[in-house]
């Protein structure tokens, strides 16, 4: 998954980015409201982690304007405020959840997964398409009863394809979703990762189809 973290505390931001990256997610970091606006104007994100008190504005105003533009990207508020009225106000503005600082990273990850499940209309982290089963938490792909462990970027690439079967993803779109803006990535790298997924899927009814000049699509059946 690709996340945007909007947080001005450098130590906290560094810790969150490190753990999210370790877990295989792509995460961009903005320390200001203006930086966050630049990011969402350029890239698509699966989830936004949003602080309230920022150097150049209030995260609640960013959230309000984001929803006013009819953007449905899930937003989790990171807040030091524990008053019920504060929590109610951000939920009413369109936040999908909130977590109170200081927090445990495992709880943050669990809340991220819960919010994303709700968006996709499911209650489980396990997806089944055709004759494959994929657990996005454990990173295990199961084909005909055989477990296959995926590396982080392989895991996130398959997760992306499975979230939108039959959708065409260009190489640039895949690069944007698999890598942060500071990482330099070539089209060859995308081809390598797609090739690895194809190899894992051999023997199943699910396949990655190349559409010349357009990109890739997950097909099954």
Q: What fraction, in percent, of the residue positions are helical?
A: 40-55%
Going across the biggest sheet, name each strand in turn.
2-1-3-6-7
- Strand fraction equals 25-35%
Main sheet attributes: strand count, strand direction, barrel closure: 5 strands, parallel
CATH class of the largest domain: Alpha Beta
Q: Number of helix segments?
A: 8
So, the CATH homologous superfamily of the largest domain? Response regulator
Class by alpha and beta content? alpha/beta
**What is the ordering of alpha helices and beta strands?**
EHEHEEEHEHEHEEEEHEHHEE
Q: Tell me the distance between the termini.
A: 26 Å
Using only C-alpha atoms, the radius of gyration works out to 18 Å
If you consult CATH, what is the topology of the largest domain?
Rossmann fold
Q: Which key features would you list for this structure?
A:
single chain; alpha/beta; Arc Repressor Mutant, subunit A; 2 domains; 5-stranded parallel sheet; 14 strands; 26% strand; globular
